[in-house]
């Protein structure tokens, strides 16, 4: 697959690899040229020094130098040095005759450098013309290449070392820069992954580079369209559920009436089934409607305000106590004042679903307790029963829509549709509350906890 990182790095590294040798060659040349010129200049100094020992005695040119002076002038730490002094007629006045070749003519005060050989040594030879008598004397100074070669080697090592270091640092900086630049994609990715499909949010993107603006704009457009499509879908579900409730309720009523009327025993079982199916359908329609409303976080279902959770639960005491009596359930409330920012009608739906489950699954004779209290920054709402409990392997999945655990009896009139806890989860999410399935304080059973931010 095409990698942006690799492509960027290639576009940076290939030019670097091409430029680096060229820069290194220039650098090498810049080091070696002045160093060589400096060494050549030293030869020039020697030539000038030797020129002082040429004497002109009325037309007779002589060269006189003490052995000591000669040694002083022509001794070098690393190179071997030779010289030759020629009079205007080309006769050797002093020095090494073998330096005579190749023959050259130089003007007075003219310098010429040539390469030659002597005693198997490659030599750098300076030919210098100095006025003497009626003509021009020639001084030839030769030097082996030890110093020059050393300069080249030193320059080469310095250049290669510098290039490697520079290349390495540049490479590291490039890799870091590309990585740093691409972090933005990781952020984008994290943002996309963090999106809740039911609650898509637009990308603010303040911390993003402006190059990504078109992408973010398109992304936000897409999100807006998806949100609209999702909202329309939720609305459709809510509308359908709402529309179905009336005919389903009449169907259920008719089935109940038919059961009360005298009827042939042969159809009794069929009427019972019809009644049960109608009850299930009414319940499903009601649950779907609640879920669709909770999904949309409908403002229409009531106000969001600071309320006392105790008040919300207290409003349910009467209705649920009646049901508890009818089903021989020991229902208790332990309520303390606890302020939260909430939507009372959504909360009522959530608590009703939790009580519904406790009644349904713990069954007659069981003990069900509702508690609410504040502890520091949190407000807890617990609905606890001493029924069969929810085994750990189901605890994650029971929050999913239409999921029912194996223990679900499904015998009651409110036949389960697997939406109750999904509704609770959705409502909890709207309240930024955390849902947990805990074990009861003592014995077996289920304790479902919603924990809210306290005000
Ligand atoms: N208090 C409880 N005790 C034991 N099991 C429970 C309890 N509450 C929920 N469950 C299990 O979790 C499953 C999912 O519950 P949920 O309320 O979502 O669906 P339901 O009760 O089957 O249907 P609905 O609530 O839509 O009528 C249930 O089928 C049941 O197995
Ligand atoms: Mg339920």
Give a short summary of the structure.
This protein is of the alpha+beta class and 455 residues long. It is 51% helix and 21% strand.
* First-last Cα distance: 51 Å
For the biggest sheet, the summary is:
5 strands, antiparallel
CATH architecture tag of the largest domain: 2-Layer Sandwich
* Overall pLDDT score: 89
Helix coverage percent of residues? 40-55%
Q: CATH class of the largest domain, anyone?
A: Alpha Beta
Strand/helix succession: HEEHEEEEEHHHEHEEHEEHEE
CATH topology of the largest domain: Heat Shock Protein 90
Structural domain count: 3
Low-pLDDT segments, ≥5 res: none
Q: Which strand order do you get reading across the main beta sheet?
A: 4-3-7-6-5
**Hetero compounds:** adenosine-5'-triphosphate, magnesium ion
Rg calc: 51 Å
Structural class: alpha+beta
The coarse silhouette is rod-shaped
The CATH homologous superfamily of the largest domain is called Histidine kinase-like ATPase, C-terminal domain
Helix-strand layout with pairing:
Elements: H1 4-51, E1 54-57, E2 60-63, H2 67-74, E3 81-86, E4 92-95, E5 111-118, E6 121-132, E7 135-144, H3 146-194, H4 213-260, H5 265-296, E8 304-308, H6 309-326, E9 330-335, E10 339-343, H7 344-362, E11 367-375, E12 378-385, H8 420-430, E13 434-438, E14 446-453
Parallel strand pairs: 9-11
Antiparallel strand pairs: 1-2, 3-4, 3-7, 5-6, 6-7, 8-10, 11-12, 12-14, 13-14
Helix pairs in contact: 1-3, 4-5, 5-8, 6-7, 7-8
The structure holds adenosine-5'-triphosphate and magnesium ion.
